[in-house]
Structures are given as C-alpha cells and as structure tokens.
Amino acid sequence: MKATHDRGLAFRVLDSTKVLLTGHSRIRINCCGMADLIGPEIADISTYHQEDIISFGRLMISLCCRTANPGSNYPKALDFIGRTYSLELKNALQFLVTPQLHPTHGSPKIIGQIFDFIGGRLLDEMDSIQLRSDSLESQLACELENGRLVRLLSKFGFINERPEFAHDFRWSETGDKYIVKLFRDFVFHSVDPNGHPVISLTHVLTHLNKLDSGSEEKLMLVSRDEQSCLVVSYKEVKRCVEAAFRELAIGPSAGTVF
What we know:
Elements: H1 2-6, E1 19-23, E2 26-29, H2 34-38, H3 45-65, H4 74-84, H5 87-97, H6 115-159, H7 175-188, H8 201-213, E3 218-222, E4 229-233, H9 234-249
Antiparallel strand pairs: 1-2, 3-4
Helix pairs in contact: 3-5, 4-5, 6-9, 7-9, 8-9
C-alpha cells in the first residue's frame, strides 16, 4: 500500500475478497485500479488514500476477529483485540479505522505512520526475513553442488563402457578413456580389506569433488585384474575426462553438447 500511495495511486477495492495468498508469508492485492476503469473519478487522490487506510484497518479487524463482517461496532472489536493481541496492534488498528477529524485542515493520515506503532516488531520481521534468505541461499548452494556432480557423472556415463565410437570397438578401453574407467572403478567399485563393497556416499562425494576441483592430490588406480597400477592426480584424471568428452562432442555424430 505504501508503494502504491507513494506513486500517487490508490487501491479503492481493498477487502478480504481481493487478497491473494501466493506463497509463504506473501500476499498480493487483486483488482487494483479496477474502480478507476469502471467509474468516474469524483475525488482527489488524497481522499482515496484515506479510504484505503480505513479499508485496510477494517480488513485487519476482520482477520483478528475471525469474521468477514465485524460490523460498525469497532470499539467492541478493538477491546477484544486488546485482550487477545498486543497493545501495539490495537493502537495501530485504532489509528487505521479512525477517520480524519478535519479533512480540509492539517496533514492527512498516511500509511507510513503505521510504522510508528509497530516499529518494535520490524526488527523481528527483518530478522525472520534474513534467516529465510540464509536458508534459501543454503538450499541454492546445495542444488548448485548437486548440479556440478550430476554433470560430472553424466560425462562418466557417456564415456565409460561405450561399445563403439568412430568404428573403434575398443575406444573406451584405450588412452585417456582407460584412466577414466579406472577412476570410475576406484570411486564406485572399491572394496574394504575384507572384500566387502564400499557403499559410502561420503567416499563418492569426496573423490568427485576433488576431481571437479582439479586437485593436485595423487591417487593410485589399479586395474580389475591387478596387473597394472597407475599413480595420477585428480587434475590429470579431470583432463582425461574433458579430453574424452570433447572427442565425443566433436565426433562425426555429435549431438547437443552441455
């Protein structure tokens, strides 16, 4: 409402049927300006602002009293609000529904004056907003992390065990592709000293993150028959993955590249 009034506009249709709940603690006002289209303008904008403020107060009283039509007995409604809610809310609503005593004299009420009554609550609201923002940022960081790993795993899927490429049936078993295959086995097919499969998400994420960052740390890759052993860095393995994927991407039947 403050943003609307500051731009020299007015709602003129503010009631419970025009309030839309669009998300968590987010509302929208529908049909704004509709009265300007269907009816002639018979008053100055200041008068419409005063009507908006009173309509807002009536709407809040309806919500507090849990009734669609609290009637015109506002003192009784305010007394109930004072006993049920905070004194700040009661004073704010009393300010909203009280008409301007001298419409042609003195300064008219403005919606910004409501902050004088609820100023003590604004810091709590701002703190809640900051906490929600931090939560959303944390969730976004997790999704970004997931996106990086999915992209990396997708490249493994394109490269490993490919039956044929460019008429070469051993393409995935030679050169850089063989190192990629050994790294895949190291991450997903490792076994413990007792010969049991290592089913650890921490193990997988740790090595995939090191690969994605191109760490200089060395690791030992052993073939399935244990006849060959390679000591390489994560950075070198990443270079092999990128080279093999690039070879696929620029091949004769290259499709969409991400």
